[in-house]
């Protein structure tokens, strides 16, 4: 799905627009500066179809990298296979890289999620060695300005990606925040409400134009309004409404 001339939504499950496997996060493709960047990798089920969708929008551009916001399975379970199919490198924050390399279901909160029916019985996270530090990729890109911003709250390893391409500043927010200021706190041991509030304030200070969340509707303009909705709930002593 074409969102902007250089921005595409190539995947998304039942919590999004249903473009790919039901358990996938949103997966975005940005083509700018002569390169293609993919944000998120889906859950690892039906990854071939996801790779085909991404490749159809790349044209002659090679995929420079796949960037993960955190290690939860709907975002990172497809990283190893998607990277293999597209012939590219996966990048993430350092803590996420360690979790993806280990692939431990308990550390990922996946054992509990499978028991709760969030993922199908028998689902297996595919570990991946060699996930590189996203900060290094951000520094080496040409034609765009980009930053990997640690943003704990939804999980301790969460990273957002702030990318300036042409006149627009895109915030790839993963599961930090969604449209209308919704959030997702899963009750896991690494969820941290005060840290989430601080991460939201940090993102608001950076004044993005677009908010491209891991689930639900992408926001192409006026992203700060959506961040303000979440922050105003905190200011009133409340927790913002849940996306889930």
Throw out a few tags for this protein:
about 240 residues; alpha/beta; seven-stranded mixed β-sheet; four-stranded mixed β-sheet; about 30% helix; globular
Order of helices and strands: EEEEHEHHEHHEHEEEHEH
What is the beta-strand fraction?
15-25%
Mean pLDDT: 95
What is the number of helical segments per DSSP (H or I, 4+ residues)? Answer: 8
Model description:
- There is one protein chain.
- This protein is an alpha/beta fold.
- Helix content is 30%, strand content 22%.
- It has helices spanning 47-58, 73-76, 79-86, 94-102, 110-115, 134-140, 193-205, 223-235, and strands at residues 2-4, 7-11, 27-32, 35-39, 63-67, 90-92, 132-133, 145-150, 159-165, 168-174, 210-213.
- The strands form 2 sheets. The protein has a 7-stranded mixed beta sheet. A 4-stranded mixed beta sheet has the order 8-9-10-11.
- A hairpin with a 2-residue loop joins strand 3 (27-32) and strand 4.
- Helix 1 (47-58) crosses helix 3 (79-86) and helix 7 (193-205) runs antiparallel to helix 8.
- The chain starts with a strand and ends in a 9-residue tail after the last helix.
Describe, in short, the structure shown.
This protein is an alpha/beta fold and 244 residues long. The chain contains eight helices and eleven strands.
Which helices and strands, and how do they pair?
Blueprint: E1 2-4, E2 7-11, E3 27-32, E4 35-39, H1 47-58, E5 63-67, H2 73-76, H3 79-86, E6 90-92, H4 94-102, H5 110-115, E7 132-133, H6 134-140, E8 145-150, E9 159-165, E10 168-174, H7 193-205, E11 210-213, H8 223-235
Parallel strand pairs: 4-5, 5-6, 6-7, 10-11
Antiparallel strand pairs: 1-2, 2-3, 3-4, 8-9, 9-10
